[in-house]
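If you are new to this repository, start here. Below is one unmodified record pulled from the training split, so you can see the exact layout before writing a loader.
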Amino acid sequence: MPDTPTPVAPVVNPEAPGPIRTLLGNRNAILAAGPAVHPLAAAGPILLKGSLGLAAMVPVWFVTAPSDVVPVPGTVFAGTAKTAATLHWLAGLWPYAGAAAVLFAGVRAFQCVLYSRKLRALDAAAEHYVQERDLTEGTRALLARAQRAQSTVLASQVHRLDLIDRQRNEVVLPVQVWEIASALREHSRLSASTEADSSSAEVIALQSARRQALRVSRDGVEQRIAALEEYAVQVGEADRRYQELQQIQRLVEGNDEALDLLARTAADALAVAEIEAMSKEAAIVAKTFTTALDRASAAAVIALPTRETA
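And here is the target side for that same chain:
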């Protein structure tokens, strides 16, 4: 199963002239840029379809022209005449259909002119941006690492709150990523030109020297990317420490509420003791009533036969 290509976003030179930065501001436009289309090639199919439609409508319009004979209502001829009249009216729209076809073809041709102009502008500004197709798979993976490190820093909370020099990050990091992308694009181009085979000893020696130079260059870029990733790791660590600090501060700010809660807990303990004392008093009273009830019951039992005897 073939490896999935590493996706990378187009990288624009942050120091490019203003008009070029405006042109390259929409990265989706760079990604969607395709081959140029000639205006006639784009408008031709529309005109052809319009011509075929007119070729069918105009004869129908002439053939279904109403005659001077008035058909008798209710007859087959009357129904046929009505159908012919409807077709004649529809076919009579051929001037509008032709105008619409010409209009659509003109709009399509104009869009192609604007698109071709934009492509020429992109070609003229090619040195100011790097896109995925400019890189080999290996260099594409390196650029993806650099872009992930940049995104990590710019998305961190300590960066957004300007706790690690937000302005410097927003200026330096795009320049760093652009220089990495430019170097990787040049590395990809030279690597492709070095792949040619030759039996000449001189050519082989030159190719070997070039490959050695490319390896040294790539090592330098990888060291820069590693430094960028290390910076992203440190920023991520600072982000986590800042979040922990915020949690501690929230806990400290909530100490008063915790103390109030403890005070309420102490009050609960006092209330429990008071209620237990009341329970004991109630138990003593209940026991007293029980003793009195027992005595009264015994006295009633003793007195009951005396009353019967009487």
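Two things worth knowing about this chain: Residues 56 and 285 are 115 Å apart (CA to CA). The mean pLDDT is 76.
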